[in-house]
Amino acid sequence: MERIELDIPGVYLFKPRVFTDDRGFFFESYRQVEFSEMGVTHAFVQDNHSRSARGTIRALHYQLVFPQAKLCRVVHGEVFDVAVDIRVGSPSFGRWVGAILSAENKQQLYIPEGFAHGFSVLSESAEFLYKCSEYYHAEDDHGIAWNDPSLHIDWHLQDPILSAKDRLYPRLDRTPKELLPSYR
Predict the structure, then answer these.
(1) Whole-prediction pTM value?
(2) Tens digits of residue pLDDT in 134-165
(3) CB-CB contact of 76 with 169 (8 Å)
(4) How far from each other are the two terminal CA atoms of the chain, in whole angstroms?
(5) Cα dist from 162 to 9, 28, 119, 159, whole Å
(6) What's the pLDDT tens digit per position in 65-90?
(7) Which residues are catalytically annotated?
(8) How far apart, in whole angstroms, are the C-alpha atoms of residue 71 and residue 44?
(9) Residues 6 or more apart whose Cβ sits within 8 Å of residue 44
(10) Alpha carbons 183 and 4: distance in angstroms, whole number
(11) Number of other CB atoms surrounding residue 89 within 10 Å
């Protein structure tokens, strides 16, 4: 497994060693000891799996009281996966990084606690899997506007399909500081 450091410290792209032959392929998608040696020390407690149509944006979500670190990958299709630093006091507050995750490249994006997370579907459909370091708590579900002009996120698509909830999230600069995580 190779760890690739992205432009925001703590957010990593992981590229697995894939073994292929005439039968297909094999790779270890998660091995705790190996990830731990590369800085991912969370105990993951929940796995999520979604399927979305081309043009869907699921974004930008986070939990405040029960923050989640996430390890994300795609098993069918292709997405543009995004992490936004929303930690008040962070040197990279308001900056984002993104990566193309696909069934073909088998790469994984690690997003630490304190980040808002989202993705856009670039293929006909995509199946997106992610491990979480904390359980989902509906009462702690928060978000930032996917199209916040101060973030300038290029989602790589036009006319997105959004949930009603995702259409209503406020811009980052209009989110009360007490509803944002703090940088430690």
Answers:
(1) 0.95
(2) 999 999 999 999 999 999 999 999 999 999 99
(3) no
(4) 28
(5) 29, 33, 11, 9
(6) 999 999 999 999 999 999 999 999 99
(7) 61, 130
(8) 9
(9) 30, 71, 131, 132, 133
(10) 23
(11) 11
